[in-house]
Amino acid sequence: MNKKRLNRISEEVKRVVSELIQREIKDPRINPFTSVTKVEVTNDLSYANIYISIMGNDDDKQNTLEGLKSARGFIRREIGNRIDLRHAPEPVFHIDESIEHSLYISKLIDKIHKEDEKKRGDNGD
After folding, report:
1. What is the DSSP letter of 122?
2. Residue range 34-73, pLDDT digits in tens
3. Which CATH number fits domain 3-97: 3.10.129.10, 3.90.1170.50, 3.30.420.40, 3.30.300.20?
């Protein structure tokens, strides 16, 4: 399938799923600080790999993932209703750790930078 079309469909699925998570799914297991970071639709449009970022501890992430998996049928039906496709892709949820990983790397860089400044300040006096 055309790569451009797949990208457009992926972005539409991302928009729809984001709206559903923020406004319509009422499952108490789903963390309110959940966001969709990326969606990849397979070439045959049978699956949509949905990457989500969840602010919170590991229990929050696991509960949110379980809540989203239980709402998979509702999400698929809404994707089918809101996007003009013959067959709605089956949503598959994955936790995206990239934001937390980048924050961790940023903290490490800041720590090294401060240690380096401290060493330079001590040697310069």
Report:
1. H
2. 999 999 999 999 999 999 999 888 899 999 999 999 999 9
3. 3.30.300.20
